[in-house]
């Protein structure tokens, strides 16, 4: 195995990022299940679901795309009859979630800005869990449907990359329906909603100063839209390769996905981590617990020392002078 400089750099940032994503995902899940007051918000179940999805995406890309691309166990991948379908299933599932997540996020922001009373009535963790269930059903429905089209690992002599490809042309029509029409509509809808959200924020700002966080989350929505547009570009290349039966085009699209996916998943993860104070505080609390330096214990200890000092001073004052 000989890694290029770019692939080495990718591994250097991917491994610690993936470990942090796993940690944050389980931390969010724990906070939600224990009904932590700070995480009783309709956004956190969606963020938790998206994070677990992105973790699955990275393991899929690493095991089923990058390892054969690095020429590791090539015969194992080429001779396998189940690994290529698995890659197609999980690839379709994990790539579907960002489109739905971006559209739903923009829709929720739109309702919160223009219909705050109605939004406050329906916004809850239970509503968010139902939305996650809908995302799960749609994404796995698309993923499992891909089993109807046979696929296998093929070595491309032009690119020198071994990657999974569909071996029937008819899959292009299926991919066109969900990849171009359905995802395209979600991208267009997200774009319209994000523009409307910025217009609404500007109008509200004239009447009542918006919090800085309102604009921060609006920019977060724009960033997720940008990454889904990149993903749509990958799908156009992949679907075009299937339709034209061009293995080189499909191999290039698969290679581009390894970088586009990093921008979408890791970019989304770090952006949200940066703007969300509750998650950062929860991470700090865990960190302080690990090193036995809890913030609360430090405050209590300093309070006790101060109390003892005040008691000592009061006793000194009450001692009569001889």
Automatic annotation (TrEMBL):
Q: Which UniProt keywords apply?
A: Membrane, Receptor, Transmembrane, Transmembrane helix
Database matches in Pfam families: 7TM_GPCR_Srv
Range of residues in the leader sequence: none
Domain of life according to the entry: Eukaryota
Bilayer-crossing regions: 12-34, 55-77, 83-106, 127-149, 172-196, 217-236, 256-275
Query: Which InterPro entries is this protein grouped with?
Result: 7TM_GPCR_serpentine_rcpt_Srv
Give the protein's recorded name. Answer: 7TM GPCR, serpentine receptor class v (Srv) family-containing protein
């Amino acid at each position: 195995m000989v890694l290029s400089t770019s692939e080495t750099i990718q591994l250097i940032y991917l491994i610690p990022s993936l470990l942090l994503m796993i940690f944050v995902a389980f931390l969010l899940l724990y906070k939600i299940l224990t009904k932590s007051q700070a995480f009783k918000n309709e956004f956190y179940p969606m963020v938790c679901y998206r994070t677990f999805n992105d973790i699955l995406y990275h393991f899929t890309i690493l095991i089923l795309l990058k390892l054969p691309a690095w020429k590791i166990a090539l015969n194992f991948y080429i001779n396998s009859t189940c690994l290529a379908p698995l890659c197609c299933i999980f690839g379709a599932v994990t790539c579907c979630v960002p489109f739905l997540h971006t559209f739903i996020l923009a829709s929720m922001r739109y309702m919160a800005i223009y219909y705050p009373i109605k939004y406050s009535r329906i916004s809850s963790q239970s509503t968010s869990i139902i939305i996650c269930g809908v995302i799960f059903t749609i994404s796995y429905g698309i993923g499992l449907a891909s089993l109807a089209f046979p696929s296998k690992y093929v070595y491309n002599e032009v690119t020198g990359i071994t990657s999974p490809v569909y071996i029937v042309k008819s899959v292009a029509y299926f991919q066109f329906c969900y990849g171009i029409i359905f995802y395209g509509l979600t991208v267009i809808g997200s774009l319209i909603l994000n523009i409307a959200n910025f217009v609404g924020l500007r109008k509200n700002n004239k009447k009542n100063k918006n919090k800085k966080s309102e604009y921060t989350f609006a920019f977060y929505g724009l960033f997720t839209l940008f990454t889904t547009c990149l993903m749509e570009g990958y799908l156009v290349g992949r679907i075009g390769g299937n339709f034209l039966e061009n293995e080189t085009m499909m191999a290039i699209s698969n290679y581009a996905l390894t970088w586009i996916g990093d921008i979408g998943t890791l970019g989304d993860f770090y952006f949200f981590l940066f703007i969300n104070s509750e998650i950062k505080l929860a991470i700090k609390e865990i960190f302080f617990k690990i090193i036995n330096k809890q913030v609360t214990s430090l405050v209590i200890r300093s309070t006790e020392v101060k109390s003892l000092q005040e008691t000592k001073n009061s006793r000194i004052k009450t001692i009569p002078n001889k």
